[in-house]
Amino acid sequence: MATLKDVSNEAGVGISTASIVLSGGRQLEQIPEATRERIRCAAMKLKYRPNAGGRQLRHNHTKTIALFLSAEVNHSSLSPDLLYAINDELVKNDYSLNFVRLDDLSLGNPDFTPRFLRQKEVDGVLVNYNVDMPQRFIDLIHHYEIPAVFMNVKRQESSVYFDHYKASYQAVEKMISLGHKQIYFVNYTGSFKHYSIEDTINGYIDALKAHDLDVVMLTNRIERSSRMAVSKKLLESGMEGNPVPTAIMAMGMSSAIPLVQAAGELGIRIPEQLSVYTIDSSSLPTAITPAISHIFLPWQKAGIRGVQMLLQKISGGENREMSGCIECEWREAGSTVAEINYEC
After folding, report:
1. Phi, then psi, of 336 in degrees rounded to 5
2. How far is residue 66's CA from residue 61's CA, in Å, rounded to a whole number?
């Protein structure tokens, strides 16, 4: 195995000069570009690989970030776009990514501490634990004073989350501007204690109240086998004495699809008689027929923002003015939202 001395001899420079170039030291800009290129070529020729562990000890950093998730069902969701964005942004900043997944039972055990916390294995952690995060895990992060940014949770600081309230409010305003007065909110999956559901509902309610319109919500969990029947009843006779809806905000595709299917079986034309839109971050809304207009969650932006916030904390230059709140995007699929024609 080639050594740093071998590289310096091959390039005809001192060991310290070769070290600065190959480690990206602070004095790198003081070395002529031609000399830098000669050293890099020598290292490539000799297949020299610097000892990462040694650099870590000298500079007191690992150049590695942990992405932490829960092993419990429905406690963590990881969009591929989020994962890819995190990885790509870290690579751009010369960092590596460690993936850590643990169950609540282990985290609740007072005798257990994750290795990446008790040892200096990572410089910081992106916590993608979205629901019912154990307090002990948060306490451990504070105890070891490890830089952390929390993904897809709404906290006072050091968190990245989507502005579901604003997106919901604006979407209802859009329906109202198209002439809709009976706008329902439907969520067949129930609540998973995630901030997004509460914020979406609050945005929906506040927008309707601002125009003195009735709030009509179906938020009880409905089993998949019953969703078509419930959807048909809702579209045929309305809810709680209210007229049938002319527009529906569905909380996710699992609620939107049975509504669209039920409308088709009942002969209710979309969007002429009924507008349907949902919240989703996948390609599914535009992959089905009819394609469903939706509030899109830009996970790529969230991943980039999370890494940038974390690296600022690691460098000691945390910018508290840097917002972790990401605006959602409205995507008009062109087929399920339109101006209402009450004569249809």
Report:
1. -120, 5
2. 13
* β-strand partners of 149: 126
Give the number of C-alpha atoms closer than 13 A to the C-alpha of residue 340, restricted to the C-beta side. Answer: 20
With beta carbons less than 8 A apart as the criterion, state whether 204 and 185 touch: yes
Least Cα distance to 210 among 172, 163, 250, 249 occurs for 172
Question: Would you tell me which CATH number, out of the four given (3.20.20.10, 3.90.1150.200, 3.40.50.2300, 2.40.160.10), belongs to the domain 64-161+301-326?
Answer: 3.40.50.2300
Query: Quick one: tokens of 309?
Result: 């916030």
Edge-to-edge, what's the strand order for the sheet holding 216-218?
A: 216-218, 183-186, 247-250, 275-280, 293-296, 329-331
What's the distance, CA 27 to chain centroid? 38
| Inter-residue contact 57 to 47 (CB < 8 Å) | no
Taking the C-alpha atoms of residue 318 and residue 301, their distance in angstroms, rounded to an integer, is 19
Q: Residue 98's pLDDT is what? A: 93
Give the mean model confidence (pLDDT) for residues 195-199: 94
Would you give the DSSP letter of residue 289? S
Alpha-carbon distances, residue 250 vs 153, 306, 343 (angstroms): 21, 28, 25
pTM summary value: 0.82
pLDDT in tens, 76-135: 989 999 999 999 999 999 899 999 998 888 888 887 888 877 777 889 999 999 998 888
Q: What is the spatial distance between Cα 244 and Cα 187, in angstroms, rounded to a whole number? A: 17
